Amino acid sequence: MKRQWLLLAAGGLLLVVTVLTATLDVPPLESGPVTITTNSSGTATTQIQKLDLRTATAAQLRTVPGIGETLAARIVEYRTAAGGFDNLYQLQNVDGISRAMVESWLPYLTLSDE
């Protein structure tokens, strides 16, 4: 989309400024909790689909902000050793995870009803 503005610069010089704006086609994350979409007017919207902590793979967990490769692997290892999670705050039992980290992940994680 092309937009033009007339600007009056110092000294009375009239400038025509042309700004090109583009609509970004941002593909959604394939397996993650956050999906960014654009509507026909080019407005981006963000939707969060929570990951199930009982079934999420390490790759899916890495899509959560603040969970990298090492933490994702530790979470999956803990889940396997402990036989699953009873609540999200149980993540604090995983080496390197604090309560503050768990609370920052609450918008991205859930536990399915078994």
Which key terms come to mind for this protein?
114 residues; alpha+beta; DNA polymerase, domain 1; two-stranded antiparallel sheet; 6 strands; 22% helix; elongated
What does this structure look like?
- Residues 23-31 have low confidence and may be disordered.
- The protein has a domain at 50-110: DNA polymerase, domain 1.
- By secondary structure, the protein is α+β, with helices and mostly antiparallel strands.
- A two-stranded antiparallel ribbon has the order 1-2.
- It is built from three helices and six strands; from the N terminus they run E-E-E-E-E-H-H-H-E.
Number of helices: 3
Judging by the overall fold, what is the CATH architecture of the domain at 50-110? Orthogonal Bundle
How would you classify the helix and strand content by structural class? alpha+beta
Order of helices and strands: EEEEEHHHE
Oligomer: single chain
